[in-house]
Amino acid sequence: MKIPLNRLALIGMFGLAAYMAWDYQQRLLADKGRLKISQSQVVPGAVEFSWGHAIEVPMEQRFIDGFNEWRDKTNHFVISLHSPGGALREGRKVIDVIRQMKKTHKVDTYVGPGGACLSMCVPLFLQGQTRIASSSSKWMFHEPSSRDFFTDEKISEPEFERRAMVRRFVDRYFVNSPIAPKWRQNLLQVWKGKDIWANGAQLMAEKSNIITRLE
Questions:
Q1: Degrees (nearest 5) of the Cα angle 98, 88, 187?
Q2: The domain 34-214 belongs to what CATH superfamily?
Q3: Quick check: 80 and 48 in contact, CB under 8 A?
Q4: Boundaries of every domain in the chain
Q5: Helix (H) or strand (E) holding 22
Q6: What's the predicted TM-score (pTM) here?
Q7: pLDDT tens digits, residue range 134-172?
Q8: Where are the alpha helices (DSSP H) in 75-180?
């Protein structure tokens, strides 16, 4: 059966458009979110994964690839974070990877001098078996919010949906976490509609148990 030339041309155009979209995505991801891997200076003998970007695609895949490459070469990883936070979905996926890592390896987390761990970065930091931070490190806590995928603008939601999302976030990442219950309750009483800032020394002095070792 012969296919008309105009239909062949249309099929070719769709195929070219699909390829161009795929190629653009591959180039975009190649330039974005590089995971630096080195011997740790914080925990001698450990391999350090350093992430200094927002928590967004392709962070999960970078961690999977890094772990697969180094899992047979060490029994100890340090995850060094310096991040403004990011997507709840990607953060959840990265936490799942870290939990898989902890089944066979020791995994610590670290925020160094001048480093920041804001918003969704905090649940990632809490995955560390030992959680190390500089006294000058910056921390920020706020309620989770929904954002438009294309514009990154905050989406206004009905109050009952907002409360349900906050409750799910707190239950998943704060209740089932090392955070001291009293400190958590104090945070939940004051953080509605606010950004709550602290430094590493303050979190340690307040006995939040977010940090277990201060530099």
A1: 95
A2: 2-enoyl-CoA Hydratase; Chain A, domain 1 (3.90.226.10)
A3: yes
A4: 1-31, 34-214
A5: helix 5-30
A6: 0.81
A7: 999 999 999 987 543 333 445 566 677 878 889 999 999
A8: 88-102, 121-125, 159-169
